[in-house]
Amino acid sequence: MQLRTFSATTMAEALVQVKREMGGDAVILHTRTYHRRRWLGLRRVEVVEITAGNGLNMAGRGGSGTARRARPQPSPATRSQSGTLTALAASRGVASRPATAGLLPSRDAIENSRQILETPAANTAAVLNLSQEMTALKTMVQDLVTQSRMSQAPNVPEDLFDYYLQMIQSQVAVEIASDVLKTLRNNLRPEQLKNPQFVQEKLADQLEKLLPVSGPIVRKKAVGPHVVALIGPTGVGKTTTIAKLAANLKLRENRTVGLITIDTYRIAAVDQLKKYADIIDAPLRVVVSPEELRAAIDAMSACEFILIDTAGRSPSDTLKLQELRAFINVAAPDEVHLVLSSTASQECIESAIARFGNVRVDKILFTKLDEAVHVGVVLNVARKVNKALSYLTTGQDVPDDIEVGKGRRLAQLILSGGTV
Ligand SMILES: Nc1nc2c(ncn2[C@@H]2O[C@H](COP(=O)(O)OP(=O)(O)O)[C@@H](O)[C@H]2O)c(=O)[nH]1
Ligand SMILES: [Mg+2]
Description:
alpha/beta; three-stranded antiparallel beta sheet; 17 helices; 11 strands
């Protein structure tokens, strides 16, 4: 294999050299165009450089093998002599100009160039040039996107920017994301920052520390039931979560559990919980007024745990907040968890917290992590309202798809893009 590089002021001239020196079967391996200063640096001259090879096996790449194929007839456009040079040179982004300033090329020279431009070498040159330009464009666009993102986050250390993007994609709040990265940048040594696994671990440590968590439901009193109420918008998963909690307490921890549901409209909203109560063999009472609720709690005083579910009339109807407050006041639960769906927008979640905050919220519980795309919202919300996360639910299966809320788990979800 023989490799040579040729330079000229136009692509056509350079190809003439290739053909003259290396023959018609030469394959163009690389082309580039650059500027060279002439006449004491006062004038910039464009130079086209071609690297060509001989004796390469290009059969599979449409190289010299193509030369042996029947050459297609030139189109009317390529038959026009000056048009040929202009069109082909322009398609390569190279200005077409006569080799000698002030002199038009001779008919022979143009014919010679035309033949050269139709060789497999010229085709390869065109394709190579195009693919190089595409790569350059792609890099340019990527750089522009990164630059514009970086300009929106001027405080983020550049070498940690990819982690910033990952957190922003999970919708971690901008201030949280840039703060944890600044802390990381200040605390890690340069060689540690070069180790992606180490950085990822340290970043997870930082995020973990930021999430307030409450731990699982625990009964501390020796006498009387530990009463837990779940409140929240319709459809977020309150009843399913009550079933998961009850089943785990009863079947895994061997605790006695009573269930109460507040159904202000005496309709079939109870059926769902009734099925679960039957399966785990726990008593269920349906109440329609605060007085009935008090009576039901008293009747279940032998249970170690009482879980209270709340229900509306239809999926679009949440139990009226004043009514709910009256129920909660009378029940005086040991803990009230606000159930929120992690598939909702942060705005929607915050509005639910504001509304239910008027009732009583001790802890927040996020459902449907398996469907969430923006798990960072859980962290933002927990910090913003300063409420501890109790549980996360990760699917529809009772009793398995529930876990105690842990900062590490959420951090991993945020950094991995949210796959449960
Ligand atoms: N994917 C998913 N679906 C859930 C989860 N928790 C509950 N659901 C579903 O959400 C829907 C509403 O649940 P439900 O418990 O009736 O909500 P409620 O109106 O708040 O009591 C049901 O189809 C549940 O199966 C969860 O963690 N992941
Ligand atoms: Mg329900």
